[in-house]
Amino acid sequence: MVACDIPTARKTSGFTAHNSTCACPKCVRQFTRLPNTNQIDSSGFDYLTWKIRSGLENRLHAEEWKSSSTPSGRHPVEIENCVRWSQLHRLGYFDLVHGTILDPMHNLFL
Question: Is residue 1 part of a domain?
Answer without folding.
Answer: no
